[in-house]
């Protein structure tokens, strides 16, 4: 039996109400919850013990998946400006089951649909939201444990302690970014909308994550992710591949999201690969355009991109699974994802 | 203590609970509905699965307040009076339960599936039950039972 710590539960109806509730309490004493599939287990493990939990589930404005006919090319690297082209707007409260099954998402962002459908197991996809997935806490073998377990080990940097059991030296937490949808949102050039006490702001998904395992996003504690906008374009294809121990439910040991733009004759006009579950933030693989743009996505190009990815990725022991094996799987999974595009 | 109002298996239930109770704790310790099991109590095993507004969810990590105003169905509410649900019958006939600890959750996941899809493929059954751990049966008889129930329901 794992009891939740005591807290008060708030059920605001609007974004403004939710933001002012979060801002009203001391640093960290109020936390938002959506599906609760990450926060509730973490609270049961005493990783968070907020006195106030602010449920976002009554906020109708944070639901819905709609296509918006913008002007312009639906560019993936337009940053905030990309938001003016044709795009899909996904409310942060949409469940992962809804996102993975939605016809518009499947048609325009196949990689995102695949990723949402590969999160956890079916009950968790019914409960868990895409907003919660983007804001998911990082994970580590020494962190996602009961209070009793962590106490026995003497705790760690990320919570209550002074050492990192993964790096042993160093003052940096390297807990793994473990959410499935963000690598796809980055590869697809998505933009996130955050609402805070000072109003709303937009931030490209690519800039949202930082390399600090303790707190790996740029979201302030009193900000809420309200909406995700994914630019769409003709000739764009995306795919996702995920390595995990049990295919039925587990978090990724390695994840690979790829998005390519193709001319009518199959020539690559842009290609992005993002790898995650290795460190605190998803990693955009560098140098892909130079290898792939201007030609076709043939076997030799796919081979070269896979090798490049291997050279760029070094898994750590933040998950107790042989890091050499995880590293060896990098080119394998990158190539599988790319073959799904070709 | 706070008052929570729930609609469980068609009944209006009112119950006093601490504000931080989960739906599972409320069902088991507030309402005496101990069919839903407390296994891992943290979202890993599926023993606590119940159906809320037609979808299978994990009651051990659902704050009880999220169930207010929604239809909750537990293993106790699957039978129609004294008439067992075809899935329950087929679990019996196919030997799909051994120790039985996972069974209430698996029945709920199965009924949620069949209410949406009357003729699921074997693969769809496997996918729908992927979040329910069973340490005894090896799953095959469970899939057989769900298939047989689907056939009886006219899939
Ligand atoms: C057994 C198990 C297996 C899992 N496997 C996977 C997996 O394979 N892949 C994966 O990606 N995840 C996995 N998860 C984690 C989780 O189920 C999903 O990531 C889910 O999408 C989280 O969404 P949620 O709405 O439930 O988040 P919540 O638990 O509600 O919130 C998660 C965090 O984000 C914050 N938050 C939530 N919504 C917002 C918002 N709109 N704005 C600002 N902050 C917000 C919360 O404060 C909290 O810190 C697993 C969980 C379990 C229990
Ligand atoms: S990476 Fe180190 S500091 Fe971070 S959670 Fe793991 S053990 Fe703790
Ligand atoms: S008891 Fe809820 S998932 Fe295990
Ligand atoms: S019958 Fe024993 S766990 Fe499934």
Protein architecture, described:
- The complex is a heterodimer of chains A (342) and B (155).
- In chain A, α12 (299-312) packs antiparallel against α13.
- Chain A has helices at 15-24, 39-44, 96-101, 103-108, 110-117, 122-127, 130-134, 147-153, 181-187, 205-208, 288-292, 299-312, 323-341; strands at residues 8-10, 30-33, 52-55, 65-68, 87-91, 191-196, 199-204, 224-231, 236-243, 254-262, 268-276, 283-284.
- Chain A is an alpha+beta fold and 342 residues long.
- A five-stranded antiparallel beta sheet of chain A has the order 4-5-8-6-7. In chain A, strands 9-10-11-12 form a four-stranded antiparallel beta sheet.
- Chain A is globular, with a radius of gyration of 20 Å.
- Chain A is built from 13 helices and twelve strands.
- Chain A folds into two domains: 1-56, Uridine Diphospho-n-acetylenolpyruvylglucosamine Reductase, domain 2; 63-134 and 177-341, Enolase-like, domain 1, CATH 3.30.390.
- With 155 residues, chain B is an alpha+beta fold.
- Chain B folds into two domains: 2-77, Beta-grasp domain (Ubiquitin-like (UB roll)), CATH 3.10.20.30; 86-152, [2Fe-2S]-binding domain (DNA polymerase, domain 1, Orthogonal Bundle).
- Chain B is built from five helices and five strands; from the N terminus they run ββαβββαααα.
- A five-stranded mixed beta sheet of chain B has the order 2-1-5-3-4, with helices on both faces.
- In chain B, α2 (86-93) packs across α5 (140-152).
- The radius of gyration of chain B is 15 Å and the shape is globular.
- Chain B starts with a strand and ends with a helix.
- The chains are: A alpha+beta (342), B alpha+beta (155).
- At the A-B interface, α2 and α6 of A face β4 of B.
- Bound molecules: flavin-adenine dinucleotide, iron/sulfur cluster (SF4) and FE2/S2 (inorganic) cluster (2 copies).
- One FE2/S2 (inorganic) cluster is lined by residues 97-102, 134-137 of chain B.
């Amino acid at each position: 039996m794992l009891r939740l710590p005591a807290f008060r539960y708030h059920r605001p109806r609007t974004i403004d109400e939710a933001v002012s509730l979060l801002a009203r309490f001391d640093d960290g004493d109020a936390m938002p919850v959506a599906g609760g599939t990450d926060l509730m287990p973490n609270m049961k493990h005493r990783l968070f013990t907020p006195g106030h939990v602010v449920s976002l589930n009554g906020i109708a404005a944070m639901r819905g998946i709609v296509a918006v006919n913008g002007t312009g090319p639906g560019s993936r690297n337009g940053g905030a400006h990309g938001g003016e082209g044709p795009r899909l707007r996904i409310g942060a409260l949409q469940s992962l089951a809804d996102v993975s099954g939605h016809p518009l998402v499947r048609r325009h962002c196949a990689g995102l649909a695949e990723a949402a459908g590969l999160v956890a197991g079916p009950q968790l996809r019914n409960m868990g939201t895409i907003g919660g997935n983007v804001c998911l806490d990082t994970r580590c073998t020494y962190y996602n444990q009961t209070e009793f377990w962590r106490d026995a080990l003497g705790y760690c940097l990320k919570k209550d302690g002074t050492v990192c059991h993964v790096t042993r030296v160093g003052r940096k937490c390297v807990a793994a970014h473990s959410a499935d949808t963000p690598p796809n949102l980055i590869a697809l050039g998505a933009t996130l909308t955050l609402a805070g006490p000072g109003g709303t702001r937009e931030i490209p998904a690519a800039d949202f994550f930082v390399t600090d395992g303790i707190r790996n996003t740029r979201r302030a504690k009193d900000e809420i992710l309200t909406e995700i906008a994914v630019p769409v374009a003709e000739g764009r294809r995306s795919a996702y591949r995920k390595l995990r121990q049990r295919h039925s439910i587990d978090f990724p040991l390695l994840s690979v999201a790829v998005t390519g733009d193709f001319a009518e004759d199959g020539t690559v006009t842009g290609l992005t690969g993002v790898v995650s579950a290795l460190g605190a933030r998803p990693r955009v693989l560098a140098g892909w355009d130079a290898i792939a743009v201007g030609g076709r996505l043939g076997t030799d190009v796919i081979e070269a991109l896979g090798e490049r990815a291997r050279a760029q990725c070094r898994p750590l022991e933040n998950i107790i699974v042989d890091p050499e094996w995880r590293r060896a799987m990098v080119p394998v999974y990158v190539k599988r994802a790319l073959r799904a595009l070709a | 203590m706070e008052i929570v109002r729930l609609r469980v298996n068609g009944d209006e239930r009112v119950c006093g609970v601490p504000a931080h109770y989960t739906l599972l704790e409320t069902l088991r310790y507030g309402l005496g509905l101990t069919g839903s099991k407390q296994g891992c109590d943290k979202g890993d095993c599926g023993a606590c699965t119940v159906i809320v507004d037609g979808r299978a969810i994990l009651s051990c990590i659902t704050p009880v307040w999220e169930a207010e105003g929604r239809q909750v169905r537990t293993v106790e509410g699957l039978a129609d009076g004294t008439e067992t649900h075809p899935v329950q019958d087929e679990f019996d006939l196919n030997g799909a339960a051994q120790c039985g600890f996972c069974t209430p959750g698996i029945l709920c996941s199965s009924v949620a599936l069949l209410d949406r899809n009357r003729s699921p493929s074997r693969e769809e059954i496997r996918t729908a039950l992927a979040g329910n751990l069973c340490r005894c049966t090896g799953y095959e008889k469970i899939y057989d039972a769900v298939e047989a129930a689907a056939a009886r329901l006219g899939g």
